[in-house]
Specification:
By secondary structure, the protein is mainly alpha-helical. It has helices at about 5-35, 45-60, 65-80, 85-95, 110-135, 150-175, 190-195, 200-225, 230-240, 285-295, 300-305, 305-310, 315-330, 340-345, 350-355, 365-375, 385-395, 410-415, 440-445, 445-465, 480-485, 485-505, 520-530, 540-550, 585-590, 625-635, 650-660, 665-675, and strands at about 260, 265, 435-440, 465-470, 515, 540, 565-570, 595, 640-645, 665. About 40% of the residues lie in helices and about 5% in strands. The strands form three sheets. It has a four-stranded parallel beta sheet.
Length: about 950
């Protein structure tokens, strides 16, 4: 038997068990991953996913943030993918040294590609070996700390020998068969190596067998070691990239993945006792979590930038994934995941791990699922979060401040002569407004945040921007609750905020529902998470809008001399920069202020966190160095005299970390100083005007759909507290309201009296109750509704006195049959204005409306409760209506319920209240009744 044939047979026989071991490992990995819980939507848009996957794999965009390492890895990857064709050619060459692939073997292009792949593999792997050796794996500062060093070295040696084997086989063939054509380009290196080798066909077969044996060793190693991510990522990385959450190729940043159990998304409405919120055991893990853990290459890029790991915390995103992988392969699937609580609660959700990962592992989503189980299933979480959850649930802000305090900064601004239009008081609809300024909790309650809010309002006023705020109509977006794992509380807060915002933007197209905010956490939630629940808005950070105002010439910084060009540095907020890729607007604004911007070593996508994200703002930091102090030292190392920020949380954290060594201010405050004169006076404001022409649509003449009927993924927009609706019916003629009856407003509000319609005799508005404005102008909690033109409004307790009507002005009656005295005026169809808190809307008999959970205890009939400060009760044109008169019920309403605080008890049925002396109330024609809408749950503000 020829020697070459014997060598070929050895290669074949050794290959059989090697391939068997490898295929067995593949089956085990597949079964392991496929046993995970299903995730909906991960296979949608396969064409887009395939294209994005190929672009990322062959473009190596994520790897190139370390250019030399990325280029070396790209060469090794190509050598593995396309070099496999050359490796299989070794079976032919071991039997027939002069042979090779038919049609390809003698093709100069194929030989050139073979040459380049072999050289690239050798050069790339040698460089990567050098990087690993230089960084080491024993020091905590090394990104390879905790990685499997032995596994990595073995794989690297195999790859190196494979690359050398490709060159050796080709060079030996050229030396043994000189009659073959040697191409000067296709064989540019191997022909020189061939000159050093003897002419021996057996040597060709030996080299081919060595190449095959190295490949077999790789197959056996991979098949036997399922936890060696450094080997398995060569096969699994394609799937983690293909099945990532966003088919358009975006990193899994911004919004969190929805809470899923047994393949369905869990909402407040749909969760049952059988569902498991989050992941606490291996049996609860999704297949994507198991796939991510199996794919982790242990490259340590995530660990290198993790703020928790770099400040001595036990959390490393890399080690978290390897712990999950080891537990999933080595433990019983019913056992709980062995994740230490200090690891779980050290995460700031900064997104550095996700952004740096070359195989698109979704670390933050996995941390969120682990936290959801710990909070919702086990009720185990840091004690500080208990207070935060309670405050969010009862006060709608994480600090537990009274919601009325949200407007205290407005009162201060107005005392200083600064105009701050409030939606529901100064602005009744969005027809003449372009931007809604979402102030946020920190912007309303934190002292530094209030200064930023005030500066933004001054800049908007100076630029002539048409905007409005909600004042006490705001509530927390729910970001701290969701990031801390309390998904149920987040959905309740999101439902409340979306109901408010959709009411504000009624009649406004989605692309012009523009919100500006100074808080990147609010921005991220409003823009990336609310669309899943039916809230679709165009959200801008305040630096984006201010940057445009400077470009448009509405804000003009005053030129500064060189003596005022002091050095500053800018800290990138994680949820503004890395999560939402807003890097340039703040820097461009700082550039026009005339200050000298000095960048820190770690900025933009690689910026270091301040330590406030992931609800860490509300937890004590007891392990290692404080993250905010670590980041502040990086800022001060630039020699900056002042630190600029674009986030209220960052402002607090950096201020605490600076310890008075340098002031920390928002970019808006620096811009405000730049446009002011030497005495601090702002320039004369521009005439208010739109930046873009508005587009508005007429409101439909039918009730707005309930929250459950609106858009949103999986019906997640449905209200969990809304009672069932019933068909509307005609009100009883002359029907009076039972004593103490009050009905909370429906989503979209109760139907207002049309403009120009007068209040019939005997129908009065109780003191403290507000009459809804015209259709399309919803009134928010705590906001007073301005009176209609020509109407007089009786002062509510604690409210302001109304302006008397002009002499001789009376609301003319509409054409048609007059309304008999004492009869009820039905509401206008299509109305959608909600009634402010403290306003009682009398119900119609039919349905009992239970109080919503968390609502304040209603006041018994007859007890007087003063209304919220600043509330007024306007009524339709036609003059003032004396207190105590009954307001007719809406058809299809609900059964009597106790009145809300601040409302007066209506008279008993059948009692008629005469009109006030001197007021003439002309009759008005009846209008068709409007079908009822379910009332939302009132939020306690006490």
């Amino acid at each position: 038997m020829p020697t070459t044939t014997a060598l070929g047979l050895i290669g074949v026989f050794l290959s059989l068990p090697a391939w068997a071991v490898f295929l067995r490992g593949v089956v085990r990995v597949y079964r392991h991953v496929s046993a995970g819980q299903d995730l909906p939507g991960r296979a949608k848009h396969p064409g887009h996913r395939l294209w994005r996957m190929l672009r990322e794999v062959f473009g190596h965009a994520t790897m190139l943030n370390k250019p030399w390492v990325g280029a070396a890895h790209w060469l090794v990857m190509l050598g593995f993918l396309f070099g496999s064709l050359v490796w299989f050619e070794g079976y032919i060459q071991s039997f027939h040294p002069a042979g090779g692939w038919p049609l390809l073997h003698d093709w100069a292009v194929y030989r050139f590609v073979e040459e380049v792949l072999a050289i690239g593999t050798v050069v790339g792997i040698v460089f990567l070996i050098g990087v690993r050796l230089s960084l080491g794996h024993r020091r905590r500062e090394s990104r390879f700390f905790g990685s499997q060093a032995g596994a990595a070295r073995l794989i690297e040696v195999i790859v190196l020998v494979e690359g050398l084997g490709m060159l050796a086989v080709k060079s030996a063939a050229l030396a043994s068969f000189p009659a073959s054509d040697i191409h000067p380009i296709a064989d540019f290196l191997s022909r020189h190596i061939a000159a050093l080798l003897p002419s021996s066909p057996v040597l060709v077969s030996v080299f081919a067998l060595v190449k095959l044996l190295m490949g077999m060793l790789f197959l056996v190693t991979v098949g036997l070691n399922l936890t060696w991510g450094v080997a398995w990522h060569r096969f699994l990385a394609f799937f983690t990239i293909f099945f990532r959450r966003h088919p358009d190729g975006r990193k899994t940043l911004g919004g969190l993945n929805p809470m899923v159990s047994r393949g369905k998304e869990l909402t407040v409405d749909s969760i049952t006792e059988e569902d498991v919120p989050g992941v606490g055991r291996l049996g609860d893990a999704s297949w994507k979590m198991l796939l991510d853990a199996s794919t982790c290459t242990e490259c340590g890029r995530c660990q290198e930038l993790c703020p928790a790991w770099n400040t001595g915390k036990p959390l490393s995103p890399k080690l978290l994934m390897t712990d999950i992988r080891n537990a999933s392969f080595l433990l019983n699937p019913e056992d709980e995941l062995g994740i230490d609580p200090d690891v779980l609660w050290s995460c700031t959700n900064c997104g550095a791990c996700v952004d740096q990962c070359p195989v698109d592992i979704e670390h933050i989503d996995h941390v969120a699922d682990l936290r959801r189980f710990s909070v919702l299933q086990e009720a185990e979480f840091p004690s500080e979060l208990g207070d935060m959850f309670r405050n969010l649930e009862t006060k709608s802000n994480p600090w537990g401040r009274n919601n009325r305090e949200r407007r205290s900064w407005i009162d201060e601004a107005r005392r200083d002569g600064l105009e701050v239009p409030i939606f529901g008081e100064d602005v009744t609809d969005f027809s003449d407004t372009e931007f809604l300024f979402w102030v946020g909790c920190a912007g309303a309650f934190d002292e530094a945040g209030r200064r930023t809010t005030r500066a933004v309002v001054e800049l908007l006023h100076t630029a002539g921007v048409k905007f409005a705020v909600l004042a006490s109509g705001e509530s927390c977006t729910g970001d701290p609750a969701r990031r801390a794992g309390n998904e149920i509380l987040f959905q309740m807060l999101a439902d409340e905020a979306i109901t408010t915002l959709n009411g504000v933007f009624e009649g406004v197209p989605e692309h012009q529902r523009t919100i500006i905010t100074t808080c990147p956490h609010c921005l991220n939630t409003l823009m990336n998470e609310y669309p899943d629940f039916g809230g679709h808005y165009h959200v801008l950070h305040h630096t984006q809008l201010l940057n445009r105002l400077v470009r448009d010439g509405r804000l003009t910084p005053v030129p500064r001399g060189p003596e005022n060009r002091r050095p500053i540095t800018y800290h990138d907020p994680c949820f503004l920069g890395r999560h939402n890729k807003i890097f340039d607007p703040p820097r461009e604004l700082l550039g026009v202020t005339g200050l000298e911007l000095r960048e820190m070593d770690r900025t933009r996508n690689e910026a270091f966190c301040c330590g406030a994200g992931g609800a860490r703002m509300f937890m004590e930091e007891k392990i290692g160095t404080r993250i905010n102090e670590f980041r502040t030292e990086q800022a001060l190392a630039t020699g900056a005299e002042e630190i600029a920020v674009g986030c209220p949380f960052c402002n607090v954290m950096m201020t605490n970390g600076a310890h008075g060594r340098a002031p920390v201010r928002d970019v808006a405050l620096m811009l405000r100083d730049a446009i002011s004169d030497d005495d601090g006076n702002l320039p004369h404001p521009h005439e208010p005007s739109f930046l873009e022409p508005p587009v508005r649509r007429e409101l439909p003449l039918h009730p707005a759909p309930a929250r459950g009927e609106r858009g949103g993924r999986g019906g997640r927009g449905a209200q969990h507290h809304a009672p069932a609706q019933t068909p509307s019916g005609a009100p009883a003629p002359g029907g009076a309201v039972p004593p103490g009856a009050a009905t909370p407003p429906a989503p979209g509000g109760s139907a207002p009296t049309p403009p120009g319609a007068a209040t019939p005799p005997g129908a009065a508005t109780p003191p403290g109750a507000a009459t809804p404005p015209a259709p399309g102008a919803p009134t928010l909690p705590g906001a007073a509704t301005p009176p209609a033109p020509g109407s007089a409004t009786p002062p509510a307790p604690g409210g302001s006195a109304p302006m008397p009507p002009a002499p001789g002005t009376a609301a003319p009656s509409a054409p048609g049959a007059p309304t008999p005295p004492g009869s009820a005026t039905p509401p206008a169809p299509g109305s959608s204005a909600p009634t402010p808190p403290g306003a009682a809307t009398p119900p119609a008999p039919g349905i009992a409306t239970p109080p919503a959970p968390g609502a304040s205890v209603p006041t018994p009939p007859g007890s007087a409760t003063p209304p919220a400060p600043g509330s007024s009760a306007p009524i339709p044109p036609g003059g003032a209506t004396p207190p105590g008169a009954a307001t007719p019920p809406a058809p299809g309403g609900s059964a009597p319920t106790p009145p809300a605080p601040g409302t007066a008890t209506p008279p008993a049925p059948g009692t008629a209240t005469p009109p006030a002396p001197g007021t003439a109330t002309p009759p008005t024609p009846p209008t068709p009744p409007a079908p009822p809408a379910p009332p939302p749950s009132p939020r306690a503000e006490d």
